Amino acid sequence: MTPAIDAPPGEQPATRRQPPARVRTSTGLAGVLGLLVLLVVSITLSLVVGSGHVPLSDVWNGVFSPDRSVEGQLIMRELRIPRTVAGLLAGVALGLAGAVIQGVTRNPLADPGLLGINAGASAAVVFAIGWLGITAANGYIWFGFLGAAVAATLVYGVGSLGREGATPVKLALAGQATSAALIALTTAMLLKDTETYDRYRFWQVGSLTGRDAEVIAQAAPFVGIGVLLALALGPQLNALALGDDVARGLGQKVGLIRVISAVAVVLLTGAATVIAGPIAFVGLVVPHAARMLAGADYRWLLVHCLLLAPSLLLVSDVIGRLIARPGELQVGIVTAAVGAVPFVILVRRRKMAEL
C-alpha cells in the first residue's frame, strides 16, 4: 500500500510521490556535451544537404564570407542559413514547451501539438493574414500568441469536464478534437484564394521552407524570453512532481508556477508556430527521450530538451529533403511519422495503468 500524507479535515489525502532522482553533475554534463556534438552535426547536415547540390566550398564561404554573385553562396545566404536558424529556434521552443507542459500537468501525453495549441496559433495567424490583411511579422505574431492561449484554455476546460477531472487521456482526446477542428478552419481560410493558399499553406502542417529574416528576427526575442522562463522553472517543476500539496508544503506557490508556465508555453509555442507552422510531436517525443539521458530532474531535463529538440527538427528536415527529391517533404509530416509510434505506446501504457 502506498503511504499517504496527512491532509486537513474534509480533504482527500494526497499520495506520496518519490522526489525526482538527482543527476550527478558529471553525468549531466556528459549528456549535455554529447547533445552539443549532435546539435553541431545536425546544423552541419542542414547547411550541407539539400534538394540541390551546393559545393562544400560554397557552403563554407556562404556562411563566413558570402559572395552573392556566386549561385551556391546565394543559396546559402537566402535559403539554407535562414532555414537552419528557423529550425534551431522552432526546435528549442517546441522541446521546452513540451517539457514544461508535461511537468506542470504531470501528464506524459501533453504536447503543444497534441493539445491543439499549435493549431490555435496557426489558425489565428492565418486569420490575421488572410482576413485582416496583417502581413507584417510584427503584427501577426501577436495573433499567434492569442491563438495559442485561447486553444490551451479551451482544451483544458473541455478536458476537465466530468467527475474525474483532467486526466491525461481526456486532455489528449480533447486536444486532438480541438486540433482537428482548428486545422479544418485554417484550411478553409487558406482556400479563400489561390494566392493565399500557395503562399501560406505551410501553416497547415509545418515547414522550414522559405523562412525569411524578418520573421525570424521578430520571433527570436520571444523564444529567448520563453527559454529563460522555462529554464528558471526547473526546481519548481521538481517540486510539482511530488504533488501540489507537497509542493505547497515545501513553500512553492503552485498557482504562480502554473501562471509562469502558461506564459512560457504560450510564448514558445506561439513563436515556434509563427516561424515554422504547427509542427507536431516534437514536444511529446523529446522530453521522453531526454528523460532516458537526464532522468526526471527538470534542472537537467530542460537543458537536454533545449539541445535535443532542434537536432530532431533539423534532422527531420534533412530527411524530408532527401526522400522526396527533387521536391521536398514538409518537416511537419516527418516529425509526425517519427512521433506516431511513441504516442501510441504512451497512450496504451496510460490506459493499462488506469485499468
Task: Break the fold down into its secondary structure elements and pairings.
Blueprint: H1 25-48, H2 56-64, H3 71-105, H4 117-130, H5 137-159, H6 168-190, H7 194-200, H8 213-232, H9 234-240, H10 244-249, H11 254-276, H12 282-294, H13 298-323, H14 331-354
Helix pairs in contact: 1-3, 1-13, 2-3, 3-8, 3-11, 3-12, 3-13, 4-5, 4-6, 4-11, 5-6, 5-11, 8-11, 8-13, 9-13, 12-13, 13-14
Q: Could you describe the 3D structure shown?
A:
The chain has 355 residues and is mainly alpha-helical. The chain has one domain: ABC transporter involved in vitamin B12 uptake, BtuC. 72% of the residues lie in helices and 0% in strands. It contains 14 helices and no strands. It has helices spanning 25-48, 56-64, 71-105, 117-130, 137-159, 168-190, 194-200, 213-232, 234-240, 244-249, 254-276, 282-294, 298-323, 331-354. The radius of gyration is 21 Å and the shape is globular. 44% of the residues are buried.
Quick recap:
The chain has helices at 25-48, 56-64, 71-105, 117-130, 137-159, 168-190, 194-200, 213-232, 234-240, 244-249, 254-276, 282-294, 298-323, 331-354.
